């Protein structure tokens, strides 16, 4: 049951974090004829799965180094808050005129935008390579083929973004606790409360992000 729950969390996080990726895929292949568009999407998806598996496995190994996991947790905490901000970084995407150009665009964009996904999956899976591969293999095709639907869902059901942000912040808290060095320090500084850190961070990020998201801009 724990593995099924973790797999569900991985899929949810990928769903929420992949809105930009979905738009890139749609834009990169939209000018191709139907048959070529399907090829570009298929090969782009297969390449993205392989690329993200390699990056995530590398992250799992790096996160075993003292303080690296804590640094990853802090970065993931920022990503979880940034997810709730209205302003999002935009990546310029050239519309592919050939199958190969579209595939290259999809792979390049996925590489650039996969840091948040990679950190989240590495933190959630806790080194379980089977969960990492299954989670990525299932989530990327869903994102690729359902790109338009996913973007619509995120706009129609904002609660999905808040759920994703909470999971990310919670995972960031767990990464801080599990860091070989910082985790020991936190257990000393917060002897009775340190286990509640992930929940506290999740609630704080959702609350702060929600307030920021709905605060009218000056001017």
TrEMBL record:
<feature type="transmembrane region" description="Helical">
    <location>
        <begin position="184"/>
        <end position="211"/>
    </location>
</feature>
<keyword id="KW-0472">Membrane</keyword>
<feature type="transmembrane region" description="Helical">
    <location>
        <begin position="6"/>
        <end position="28"/>
    </location>
</feature>
<feature type="transmembrane region" description="Helical">
    <location>
        <begin position="40"/>
        <end position="61"/>
    </location>
</feature>
<dbReference type="InterPro" id="IPR022301">
    <property type="entry name" value="Integral_membrane_YjbE"/>
</dbReference>
<comment type="similarity">
    <text>Belongs to the TerC family.</text>
</comment>
<dbReference type="InterPro" id="IPR005496">
    <property type="entry name" value="Integral_membrane_TerC"/>
</dbReference>
<dbReference type="GO" id="GO:0016020">
    <property type="term" value="C:membrane"/>
</dbReference>
<feature type="transmembrane region" description="Helical">
    <location>
        <begin position="106"/>
        <end position="125"/>
    </location>
</feature>
<feature type="transmembrane region" description="Helical">
    <location>
        <begin position="67"/>
        <end position="85"/>
    </location>
</feature>
<dbReference type="Pfam" id="PF03741">
    <property type="entry name" value="TerC"/>
</dbReference>
<keyword id="KW-1133">Transmembrane helix</keyword>
<feature type="transmembrane region" description="Helical">
    <location>
        <begin position="159"/>
        <end position="178"/>
    </location>
</feature>
<feature type="transmembrane region" description="Helical">
    <location>
        <begin position="131"/>
        <end position="154"/>
    </location>
</feature>
<keyword id="KW-0812">Transmembrane</keyword>
<protein>
    <submittedName>
        <fullName>TerC family protein</fullName>
    </submittedName>
</protein>
